[in-house]
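Appendix B. Worked example

We walk through a single record from start to finish. Start with the input: the chain for Acyl-CoA dehydrogenase, Nocardia panacis, length 404.
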Amino acid sequence: MVAIQTSDSATAAGRAVDSAETDARFAAEVRAWLAENLRGEFAALRGLGGPGREHEAFDERLAWDRRLAAAGWTCLGWPEAYGGRAASVRRQVIFHEEYAKANAPARVSHVGEELLGPTLLAFGTEAQRERFLPGIKSVSELWCQGYSEPGAGSDLAAIATTAHRDGPDWSVNGQKIWTSLAHVADWCFVLARTERGSSRHHGLSYLLVPMNQPGIEVRPIIQLTGTSEFNEVFFDNARTAADLVVGEPGAGWRVAMGTLAVERGISTLGQQIRFARELGDLEALARRTGAADDPLIADRIDRAWVGLRVLRAHALRTMGGDHVDDGGAASVAKLLWAEWHRGLGELAMAVRGPAGLVAGEHDLDEWQRLYLFTRADTIYGGSNEVQRNIIAERVLGLPREARP
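Next comes the structure step. The output line below is what the pipeline stores for this chain.
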């Protein structure tokens, strides 16, 4: 029997073909631009940067980010009125995947572009958007995130940093920790307690604070890898203007959760391609050294490839939804990739065998660095324990865990 297409179904099929063709042309445009520009002074940047490696060629990668901005390749999903291309989720996915396939360097402006920018679009005032979005788009102002504290890492609602109104300003006092790239940032979005006597997620405000002022001290934290992309940040009557609070004063928790949901969004698909490159390189090493002849290691490699497919399937299934109020999908995504990547670091040490226990004379090799840094994957950005609680309480509807 021959299926007969109705006019409606034929129209839908035609739209699908047109969409596929335009997506293919867009992907080809991205590939061509990257091939043309990742040359000359930028050729050596391929594969550099990223978590645990932010120290690599930072100034050069900043120049690369600004080249991207000048060509219109930053902030693709933003509305055109704010300098973006209003690109669909699918187009943004294509860009991130093509970028990763080209082994282009990790971006230095991701905190501003991928975290604060979408937060301002969702929660900020028009004046805040006009002030800050152009600097993010052009990569002329860099941002860091002031969330975690020594006593409030995974339990973000326990923060003790305070801010109070002092004339035309907010005065901020307290300490943040594990603040990525604070030593190079121009601004920090800070979650602070602004209502005296408040507790947990009540009475918090989301403030935009300039970093270059006398009331702020940044101290580097030396990591297991020997690098120091994380920092402690101390606020001692640091100042910011009264109107630089995103959302209503005291209602910063919802804004902060919106930022965290964005953090686990579209760019994770590009992250997965980088993961696949790491796994492919590790499998090649296992074959060269004979480690792949061990059935247990061969099985772990196979399982890792299956795990990558699961990551991608979940990301595509949930992409494009609004998870500002419901963090379930974002929490599942964080839990999946963090567990997978930490497991890859452990697999790397199994492949390396006893040689992986010995550091080089001057530096760790790539697999040792991967293993050490991925110990943090299940902690930063919200620990696994916190993600499981969110899924249990907000998605499955289980009783809340007892809290002090």
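Two observations about the output. The two ends are 68 Å apart (CA to CA). The mean pLDDT is 85.
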